[in-house]
Amino acid sequence: MDSSFSKISQALLLLVVLCGITGCNAQLSTEFYSKSCPNLFPTVKSTVHSAITKEARMGASLLRLFFHDCFVNGCDGSLLLDGTSGEKNAAPNVNSVRGFDVIDDIKSAVENVCPGVVSCADIVAIAARDSVHIMGGPNWEVKLGRRDARSASQAAANSSIPPPTSNLKQLISSFKAVGLSSKDMVALSGAHTIGQARCISFRARVYNDSNIDPSLAKTRQRHCPRSRGSGTTIWRRSMSILRRISTTNTSRISSAKEGSSTRINSSSVGDPRILSSGLTAR
Ligand SMILES: *[C@@H]1O[C@H](CO)[C@@H](O)[C@H](O)[C@H]1NC(C)=O
Ligand SMILES: *[C@@H]1O[C@H](CO)[C@@H](O)[C@H](O)[C@H]1NC(C)=O
Ligand SMILES: *[C@@H]1O[C@H](CO)[C@@H](O)[C@H](O)[C@H]1NC(C)=O
Ligand SMILES: *[C@@H]1O[C@H](CO)[C@@H](O)[C@H](O)[C@H]1NC(C)=O
User: What is this enzyme's catalytic activity, as reactions (predicted)?
Assistant: First the structure.
C-alpha cells in the first residue's frame, strides 16, 4: 500500500478515535492561526479601523452581523452566503444587516497575507471584537478555528433570531436555546446601546409605551412618524454610552450625553424589557 494512502488512513483513524472521545467538538483556540497566519489580528484590525473611521455606525453593524450569524446554527459564516433563499434575506436580516462589504475587504486583506488559511466565520468573530474595542468598549481574546458553513438556513434565521417584539421570557428562552444564560443575555443586550435603529423598530416603543422618558419619546417621535412605511430615520446611540456601561453598573447611569443634547437615564439606556426585570442589578 502506498505510504501517503496509509498516512491518510492513519489520520482518519485518529480522527475517528478523537471524535469518539470528544464527541467531535473541536476545541477553538486563540493560537489557532499563530503559525499559519501570524499577522491575522493586525490585518483584520486595520481594515475594521478604516471602515469605522469612514462610517462610525459600521462598528455596531459588524457586531450585529456576528450576532445574527451565531444565532443560526452557530458562528459558521452562513449569513455571508448569497442566494435568495439564504439567511441574508430572512426577515431579521433583509434590509438591515450591514457590513458585508467590510467583511469582503477584510477577507481580501487576510488572503493577501496568508492565502487559503483563515475561515470567514473567524474573520466575522474577530471583526466584531475589534469593532467593540475600537468604539471604546471592552476587549477580549477571540478563540478561533471555526469552519465555514456550506449552506444557510433562512427558516432557522426567521425562527431563532429574537425579534424586537420578544418579551423577557421569550428572550431568555431564545438565548437558552443557544446555550446562553439570562446573565449572558443581559450582557449581550448591552450591544443595543450603540448604533442606529430604523423607525419601524422603535415606533411602538416611542408612541405606545408608558415606561419611557417622555422627553426622549418626544424627541424620537420627531424623527419617526406614527404611521408611514419603515421610515429611514434613526435612533442613534453614542459610543460614550458604551464606554460608561463598560465601566459602570447600568443601574447607576443617571444621565449620559447622547449626540449633542439628549439626556438619557437608566429607564432609557438599555433594553426596557430587561431593565424592568431587575436582572441588570446583577
Ligand atoms: C422568512 O421570512 C420571510 C419574511 O417573513 C418570508 O418571506 C420567507 O418566506 C421566510 N422564509 C422561510 C424559509 O420560512
Ligand atoms: C399603538 O397601540 C394602538 C392600540 O393598541 C395600535 O392600534 C397602534 O397600532 C399602536 N401603534 C404602534 C406604533 O405600535
Ligand atoms: C428617568 O426617567 C424616568 C422616566 O421618564 C423618570 O421618572 C425619572 O425621574 C428619570 N430619572 C432621572 C434621574 O432623571
Ligand atoms: C449597582 O448600582 C446600584 C445603585 O447604585 C447598587 O445598589 C448595586 O449594588 C450596584 N451593583 C453592583 C454589582 O455594583
Answer: 2 a phenolic donor + H2O2 = 2 a phenolic radical donor + 2 H2O
Ligand 1: distance of its center to the CA of 151 in Å? 16
Ligand 3: does its nearest atom lie under 6 Å from the Cβ of 148? no
pLDDT digits (tens, 9 = 90+) for 1-27: 455 545 555 555 544 444 444 444 568
Residues labelled as active-site residues: 68
pTM of this structure = 0.72
- The answer, yes or no, to whether any atom of ligand 3 lies below 6 A from the CB of 211, is no
Cα 71 to Cα 36, 79, 91, 169, distances in angstroms: 28, 10, 14, 17
Dist. CA 224 → ligand 4 center (Å) = 34
Q: Does domain 168-281 have CATH number 1.10.420?
A: yes
Ligand nearest to the CA of 165: 2
Pick the CATH number of 40-160 from 1.10.520.10, 3.30.70.1110, 1.10.1670.10, 3.40.50.300: 1.10.520.10
